[in-house]
Amino acid sequence: MKQALLGLLILLSVGSYGQNKRIKIKPTPDEIEFIRSIFFGSMSSKPDETFQYQSKIRSFSLSQNIKFFARDTIITSYRNRKATKPEPILILTSEEKRHIKSQLQMQDSLMWGVRIIPKEKRLSLAKHGSETLFTISKPVFLRNNSICIFEYSYECGSRCGYGKSAVYQRVEGKWQTLMIVYEWHS
Q1: What residue ranges in 36-173 does DSSP mark as E strands?
Q2: Each residue's pLDDT tens digit, 100-112
Q3: Taking the model in full, what pTM does it have?
Q4: What backbone torsions phi and psi does residue 114 show, to the nearest 5 degrees?
Q5: How many C-beta atoms surround the C-beta of residue 82 within 10 A?
Q6: Which residues contact 76 (CB under 8 A, 6 or more apart)?
Q7: Selection from 150, 79, 82, 73 nearest residue 116 by Cα
Q8: pLDDT in tens, 135-180
Q9: Cβ–Cβ contacts within 10 Å for residue 75, how many?
């Protein structure tokens, strides 16, 4: 009986260790270009500032994205009643939905293995103190890299933060927000 309990304990500890294992990934040139254009093309951060981020996307965000992108038709979560043009929509094929789901499910165990932003510093959430800490997902590209699903957030203390998951589209060589899937403010 003691041997059976000991064996079960070992099996459970090995099983849980394997689930927490991180896979270091090397970003593609397209991923690096996309992330740099999002953060330094439209945000106040500049490449000469230290950019701190953690390597893990929140599980809740991942599960929300997996549910949202399981739909056939993607529309923005934020309707503008005064809009002069129609809200954008994205119709996904079955193959695209499978690709998105597999890419999102994989992100729970991924960690950037190399620098993706100049002067970056990776930190754990517990160690970031009061400085701004970003969380960035691995971009999910569709349609020959002309569409991208991406999530980022930042926290600047216990009562300060912002996050969004969005669909981006490459227009004339530049990435633009096509639609915001969801966003939060604190």
Answers
A1: 51-54, 73-75, 89-91, 110-112, 120-122, 133-136, 140-142, 147-155, 161-171
A2: 999 998 887 777 6
A3: 0.75
A4: -140, 170
A5: 4
A6: 87, 88, 179, 180, 181
A7: 150
A8: 888 899 999 999 999 988 887 777 788 888 999 999 999 999 999 8
A9: 13
